[in-house]
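Self-study notes.
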Amino acid sequence: KKTGITLELQTVSNEDSTEALTSGLASGDLPDFIVYYLDDSGRPEMKVLNKAAKQGRLTDLTKMLKNTKIYSKYFKKGYLPKDTKDNIMFNKEQDGTYLVHMGINRHPGQEERRTVGGPYVRKDIMDKLHINPASIKTSKDVEKLAEKMKEHHFKDDNGKEITPIGPTAWGGDDRTKFYNDLVWTGQSDEKFLNKGKKIVHESQTDYPLKRVHYVKDLMKKGLMTKEFYTMEENKAKEGLVNGSWGIVSDLHNYVTENQSMKYVPLGPLNTVKGKFRVEKPYKSGANGWAVPSTTEHPEDVVKLADFLASREGKLLGQYGIKGRDYTLDKKGNPHVKPEVLKEVENNPDEAKKRGFRGAGSYWADHLGYTDIDNKADFGETEYGDNTKTKKTTPEKIADMWHYDEKQKHAKIVNGLTVKSFLSKYEYGEDLEVALDDYSDAIKRAYYSQSDKEAKQIIDSAKQRLEEAGLNQFERYVENQRDKKGTQIIY
């Protein structure tokens, strides 16, 4: 009713999002706009999207975006993070603006919500052992803690002996924060770091072997589940709910299965560079959209996007319908109806049918989730805070972790990740494949039969990286950094 536009969304089912995007663009049978994953320009989608733009398959949105209320902010100096500005939105190798990056916060260094991610540990176990979870600072500390758990034969809710170290809350995966001090990387988790002025990839250090030896030792002692990297999500979640893991290798304070605070944050662990410190980008983005050149009225897509990104549009997309889902206070801020909050908590599948973000339906995010400042727009950081009278579990966990204090001392960097240079590097495609192969090789090494076999796997992956031009790429990034004064986000 507000825009005169009817929106119909279609989801493409494909395990590989890049493959789905490539197939869609190649077919030529495209909708009025397309949406894709894109947290930074180092993602594999970028080369597909850039190619499509150069081939004339996408619409130049420059003039249309400049004539909007919200998206026109993207053209203001300092509004966009450097990677979004230079490599995605206003790439000098393109003759226009074809890709729109989403999830941009209104202010630098601003956090949408107080999220505490990383390894978590069963609180009751730490209480019984008289150990402060925050005192665990190294991978050796984690191993000693796991050994104590095994010695004490702690049980889960079903009376079965626990596994000291379990997978992430979402299943088997290789997450850095579990063994921060054994991974040669920074916050971007790309496995690149600096040695002085030199940019060095993890394969050129002894950290892969150190980490593999550590993991194999944990598994051999029965301290870590052998499905640490392979477990299905439903089994991992079941273990989380039942308290079957002493330590969950990755979790965050908004996961609904931990609202009883059975698990609390562990650490945080130090990094290979020393004491843990929060590092965050000046601003960051997530996801993106573009308009195919076959779209008859691209201006309508931009019109809808600008409405959904406005306060009025966000109110609809995030809070639903006034009167049915929320009321407004004297300041015009939404107060979610208590019965709606109850439904969201107790019957999420039914609540989702209400059709807005707070209830678990994210249709408006595709075009409207940007220029984010929920506190300024709605008087609350998190959906429902204006209505809730007690501190929520996420807030309690954030306070326990001293979130606000850590943010005060955070390092903010407005720069580019190392991988974001791949799209402009002559042999970037080959190297990107080799970097992916390296990650797969590490996982194989974890399950190798011996240290000798593990070393062979890692050496082979390192050789492939060198053959794909890793050394030359590192010098290329150093050159670009020094020539343009670009800050590197590791």
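Second protein, same conventions, sequence then structure:
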Amino acid sequence: MVQFKHPQGSTSLPFNVLSDGEKCFFIAALVIAASAVSKTVFCFWDEPDNYLALSEVSHFIIAL
């Protein structure tokens, strides 16, 4: 279950109903959050540009 908070409240959805691109964004956000609290984070991501635009992937890499 994934919960999204917004100004009007929150929305909960099962993870499997997210699109492949939304799942990629979710995993990217999780890795960025984990790297903020842990010195070392390993993430092996095969072909991240399959569901995300290259510009979105570059933002993810820069954030790390």
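Instructor comment on the second fold: Helices lie at 20-37, 54-63.
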